[in-house]
């Protein structure tokens, strides 16, 4: 559903922010920070708003921050994270330190064996620390002894946190972030959510991802320091992430500025530039994405680009990571991928992401359903960005996407998401945000000037969507 509004403004207004959903109280929220300070840069304002709403908030700091100054530097930076958290209204026990090696996550993640133990730049081979939850690193707190620096342990810690806390919302960075520790943190969190969902864990988590080091040449979002009255400028990236699909909301920029300043070992005018009027996130709803738990079949597949790559939680692909695509085996017209569920589901939206290879693209396709209905789909965006297909709720047991026409040597998708709920569920799901506001956004609207903008959302229960707009 699209809402188009024409507004006559009687005063100057910066239309730069769509609104984050109305956050109800009594939620559990985890914030995963690759380094001590990223929690504040990405979600300091969200943390403060959640504290004021009475939510349970836990900050998880993945690395020890010890690459430059060793264990002494790690202790200093842990203290800075605790001080910043206290400024935002949390306690030291709300900060959880995993204490994996700074600048070592990629080495652990890509090791030849998941049990290979690496030695960090600080000379450590296992987790350590004496701050935060329990006054120690999380693995020792939870399992009784430090955890070795390998992929098995790192994945275990993140899965354990998600399983223990069963968060309603998770905030972290994107896997398109160019810092290797940020990239791996995003991979680990998403993979853990997918793994837990497939194992039968009843997670309904919404994953919100920001970015700190975007794949751009400029020094975004440089403002020369704190700018609490100025929204984030639009971010231009050649990835599947689109600025028009960010959820954004006003935050306490002055307090966020103070919290960033609580990291004296790290603070620069560039980092202070993250203290803005708003914060932004891209949303992945693991609670309503039924594709993750489906049985997946396909007409054909490449050995390294199999069908499960299209339901791995990542809208990705070449040139960033071609292994995260489903690619048919030299098949164009007629290639298909199908998702089956053992029990009926009610679905109302399918998100399609083409492979971001401009030489191999889907020009036309068909969505077909077990109830005998079908929907014709036109060309998918050639850069792999989202094409949402929305429709009235259908109760089905399978969904198939057939590629009717394509260019290149082989057809496929980087991701397919099917949004809905189990057919027997009586849950009322919040409307699913698609994009907006578009039009006159991201520029000043002057006195007595008319602006037109639009917002798109889809309700998975088939209810009428209500929109509320507010501005300061």
Word description of this protein:
This protein is an alpha+beta fold and 472 residues long. The protein contains 8 helices and 20 strands. A 7-stranded mixed beta sheet has the order 5-4-3-6-7-9-8, with helices on both faces. α1 links the parallel β3 (28-33) and β4. Mean pLDDT is 92; it is low at 9-17.
Overall radius of gyration:
22 Å
N to C succession of SSEs: EEEHEHEHHHEHEEHHEEEEEEEEEEEE
Query: Low-confidence parts lasting 5 or more residues at pLDDT below 50?
Result: 9-17
How can the largest sheet be summarized? 7 strands, mixed
* Distinct helical segment count: 8
Mean pLDDT: 92
- Helix-strand category: alpha+beta
Shape: globular
Largest beta sheet: strand ordering: 5-4-3-6-7-9-8
Strand content: 25-35%
Share of helix among residues?
10-25%
Terminal Cα separation, in Å? 26 Å
**Count the strands?**
20
Map the helices and strands.
Blueprint: E1 2-8, E2 13-14, E3 28-33, H1 38-52, E4 56-63, H2 70-87, E5 95-100, H3 105-109, H4 138-143, H5 151-165, E6 169-173, H6 180-198, E7 206-210, E8 247-250, H7 253-260, H8 269-272, E9 278-285, E10 295-298, E11 326-327, E12 336-353, E13 362-369, E14 374-377, E15 386-406, E16 412-413, E17 415-422, E18 432-439, E19 444-445, E20 450-458
Parallel strand pairs: 3-4, 3-6, 4-5, 6-7
Antiparallel strand pairs: 1-20, 2-19, 7-9, 8-9, 10-12, 11-16, 12-15, 12-17, 13-14, 13-15, 18-20
Helix pairs in contact: 1-7, 2-7, 5-6
Task: List the defining traits of the structure above.
single chain, 472 residues, alpha+beta, 19% helix, seven-stranded mixed β-sheet, six-stranded antiparallel β-sheet, 20 strands
């Amino acid at each position: 559903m699209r809402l188009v509004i024409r507004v006559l403004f009687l005063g100057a207004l910066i239309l730069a922010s769509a609104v984050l959903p109305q956050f109800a109280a009594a939620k559990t929220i985890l914030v995963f920070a690759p380094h001590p300070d990223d929690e504040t840069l990405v979600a300091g304002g969200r943390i403060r708003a959640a504290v004021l709403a009475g939510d349970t908030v836990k900050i998880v700091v993945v690395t020890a921050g010890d690459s430059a100054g060793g264990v002494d530097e790690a202790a200093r930076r842990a203290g800075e994270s605790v001080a910043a958290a206290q400024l935002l209204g949390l306690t030291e026990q709300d900060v959880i330190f995993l204490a994996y090696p700074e600048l070592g996550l990629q080495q652990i993640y890509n090791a030849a064996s998941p049990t290979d133990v690496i030695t960090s730049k600080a000379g450590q081979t296992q987790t350590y620390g004496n701050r935060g939850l329990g006054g120690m690193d999380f693995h020792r707190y939870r399992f009784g002894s430090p955890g070795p620096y390998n992929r098995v342990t790192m994945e275990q810690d993140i899965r354990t946190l998600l399983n223990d806390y069963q968060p309603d919302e998770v905030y972290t960075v994107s896997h398109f972030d160019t810092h290797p520790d940020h990239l791996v943190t995003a991979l680990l969190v998403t993979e853990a959510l997918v793994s837990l969902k497939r194992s039968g864990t009843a997670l309904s988590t919404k994953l919100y991802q920001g970015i700190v080091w975007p794949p751009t040449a400029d020094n975004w979002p440089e403002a020369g320091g704190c700018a609490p009255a100025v929204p984030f400028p639009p971010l231009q990236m050649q990835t599947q992430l689109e600025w028009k699909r960010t959820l954004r909301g006003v935050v306490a920029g002055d307090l966020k500025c103070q919290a960033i300043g609580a990291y004296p070992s790290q603070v620069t005018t560039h980092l202070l530039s993250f203290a803005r009027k708003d914060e932004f996130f891209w949303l992945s709803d693991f609670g309503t994405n039924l594709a993750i738990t489906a049985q997946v079949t396909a007409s054909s597949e490449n050995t390294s680009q199999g069908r499960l790559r299209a339901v791995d939680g990542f809208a990705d692909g070449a040139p960033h990571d071609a292994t995260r695509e489903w690619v048919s085996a030299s098949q164009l017209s007629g290639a298909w991928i199908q998702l089956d569920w053992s029990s009926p589901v009610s679905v109302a939206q399918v998100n399609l992401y083409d492979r971001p290879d401009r030489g191999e693209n889907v020009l036309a396709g068909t969505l077909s359903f077990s109830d005998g209905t079908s929907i014709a789909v036109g060309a998918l965006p050639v850069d792999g960005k989202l094409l949402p297909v929305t429709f009235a709720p259908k109760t089905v047991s399978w969904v198939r996407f057939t590629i009717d026409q394509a260019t290149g040597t082989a057809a496929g998708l980087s991701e397919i998401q099917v949004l809905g709920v189990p057919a027997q569920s009586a849950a009322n799901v919040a409307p699913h945000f698609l994009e907006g506001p578009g039009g006159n956004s991201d520029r000043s609207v002057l006195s007595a000037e008319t602006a037109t903008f639009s917002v798109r959302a889809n309700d998975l229960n088939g209810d009428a969507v209500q929109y509320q707009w507010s501005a300061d």
